[in-house]
């Protein structure tokens, strides 16, 4: 699979890939966002349900295709996001995702690893951005 790291983490990634958690759809999601890995064209779509105060993530579902890393990352992230304050999602970065995966990710695969995290973050940014018209955000594709 082209990833290094300990067997335990590799097993965990394979397990999430084969049995993705929270795979599917949530009909009455607070927001839904889809994103693409520009390197390969694979997409992940994510539904997020926030609590009534819109401060905490209550439920997450995702669907899409992609390599083992992207799917396992989406599955693991969906578990991590459940119960997480939206603020914490906004602060996540690629290192948090790589730590979550627990394996070495080659530069070629970083976009696979962070795809789901970008989708969740961009979805939140767009959702809150549209609610607060003065909080304008510019799309820059950070590496
Ligand atoms: Fe497409 Fe990894 S190769 S998401």
Automatic annotation (TrEMBL):
It comes from the Archaea. Residues 8-131 form the NIF system FeS cluster assembly NifU N-terminal domain. SUPFAM superfamilies: SufE/NifU. Pfam families: NifU_N. CDD domains: IscU_like. This is Fe-S cluster assembly sulfur transfer protein SufU. It comes from Halosimplex aquaticum. The lineage of its organism: Archaea, Methanobacteriati, Methanobacteriota, Stenosarchaea group, Halobacteria.
């Amino acid at each position: 699979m082209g990833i290094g790291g300990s067997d335990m983490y590799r097993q965990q990634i394979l397990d999430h890939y084969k049995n993705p958690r929270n795979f599917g759809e949530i009909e009455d999601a607070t927001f839904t966002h889809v994103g693409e890995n520009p390197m390969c064209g694979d997409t992940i779509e994510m539904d997020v349900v926030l609590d009534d105060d819109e401060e905490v993530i209550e439920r997450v579902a995702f669907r899409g295709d992609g390599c083992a890393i992207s799917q396992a990352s989406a599955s693991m992230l969906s578990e991590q996001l459940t119960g997480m304050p939206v603020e914490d999602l906004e602060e996540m970065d690629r290192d948090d995702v790589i730590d979550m995966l627990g394996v070495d990710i080659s530069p070629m695969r970083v976009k696979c690893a962070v795809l789901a995290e970008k989708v969740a973050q961009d979805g939140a940014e767009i959702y809150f951005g549209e609610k607060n018209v003065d909080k304008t955000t510019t799309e820059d594709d950070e590496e």
